[in-house]
Amino acid sequence: MRGDLGNPRMLRVLNERRLLDHLQEHGPASRTDLAKITGLSKPTVSAALAGLEVDGLVHLVGEVSGRPGPVTSLYDVNAAATHVAGVDIGRDWIRVAVADLRGKFAGRRDGRNTALTSAELALLVGQLCRAAASEAVVDWPDVACAVVGTPGVYDPELGRLEFAPNLPGSDLAERLRAEMEVDLVIENDINLAAVGEHTHGAGRGKSNFALVSVGTGVGMGIVINGELYVGARGAAGEVSYLPATEDPAPPAGDALAHGATEAVAAAPGVVRAARAAGLSLRTAKKVFAAAASGDRVARSVVEAEGRRIGGLLVAVAAVLDPEVIVLSGGVGRNLDLLGESIEARIAELGPLRPSVVASTLGDSGVLLGAVARARTRAWELIFDARLP
């Protein structure tokens, strides 16, 4: 390492990275300001900016005059130097965004997930990616990298997804790589939702928080000391497999495939509970709409769902003690209807009182997290290419 640090090219790249990291986070700055902030000499800053400008990674964005001395030039990251892609593969929808190096969406496409096989799903994702790139006026092969969020856990050694019963085929990861033909990272969707929340939502500025998603499935993303925590094998947060204590045991097949908590608390479980109560409603969204309009039976179903979620949140709080728990997903973000029963169940279970808020990112949480991850990956690739 000492030999590397004495390498002039290595030192130049490290200096460039320091400058780019500051510009990326704080925006335009002058050479003088960058020298003060980074502790580098003005000649070193000037040389690094010149190299970055030649390579298109920074550009001149303005000048400051009207004070003693020469006109001061302002530099910033050239966010359009390259683009990245984020992909959210859900059971019903696929969402794709192509974004610049600051995470600004330049193109987006959403499409129904109608695929019955892994080959069909990979083809559909590829088509949406290329359509989003076309909207962004970017050639798809020029996209630096893509991050795909899916249910389940990606096993890099086996090259396949585990714990993803809602997606077709065990070879989906392999087919995605073949179809997309760019640097590709596959991540758990709820982990990416936590990244999105940490970057743009209720987790912003929080060092320790958890995102609990209750929708077509149940999952959790964990941020500890400002970093995503995934565990030894990537399965941290798979709370769908926690025992379900609020209800009789779910059908054995559902519990094994989806987890006991997911079988009763996710959207299909809400629909089953509504039908058992005599309501002929086909979606959890309609159950919540009926409850909001004052239907007593629907309200009782929603109250029971809130108690299930409350029990889950106490388990989360007992293990992680987060600053805040963010509820997301098509079911979870209905905190206006669920909040009272969640709080009542939490109060019954002991002295822990986690702060619970609803996500404000809507259906874009996973996509925003995927783009944030892709931006980080793109910078890694850029600087790997610049290293000696």
In words, what does this structure look like?
The structure is a single chain. The chain is built from 15 helices and 15 strands. It has 388 residues and is of the alpha/beta class. α7 (189-200) packs across α15 (365-386). It starts with a helix and ends with a helix. The mean pLDDT is 92.
User: Strand order across the biggest sheet?
Assistant: 6-5-4-7-10
**Beta-strand percent range:** 15-25%
Number of strands: 15
* Mean pLDDT across every amino acid position: 92
Distance between the termini: 13 Å
Low-confidence stretches: none
Q: What is the share of helical residues? A: 40-55%
**Tally of helical segments:** 15
Q: Which H/E pattern describes the elements?
A: HHEHHEEEEEHEEEHEHEEEHHHHHEHHEH
Q: What would the principal axes of the Cα set say about the shape?
A: elongated
Class based on secondary structure composition and strand pairing: alpha/beta
Main beta sheet: strand number and arrangement? 5 strands, mixed
* Computed CA radius of gyration, to the nearest angstrom: 24 Å
Write a brief structural summary.
It is built from 15 helices and 15 strands.
Keywords:
single chain, 388 residues, alpha/beta, five-stranded mixed β-sheet, elongated
Task: Annotate the secondary structure layout.
Elements (H helix, E strand, L loop, with lengths): L1 H4 L2 H19 L2 E2 H8 L3 H13 L3 E7 L7 E6 L5 E7 L3 E7 L5 E8 L5 H18 L7 E8 L2 E3 L4 E3 L9 H9 L2 E6 H12 L8 E6 L3 E7 L2 E3 L22 H7 L1 H6 L1 H10 L7 H9 L3 H25 L3 E5 H4 L2 H14 L7 E3 L6 H22 L2
Parallel strand pairs: 4-7, 7-10, 11-14, 14-15
Antiparallel strand pairs: 1-3, 2-3, 4-5, 5-6, 8-9, 11-12, 12-13
Helix pairs in contact: 2-4, 3-4, 5-6, 7-15, 11-12, 12-14
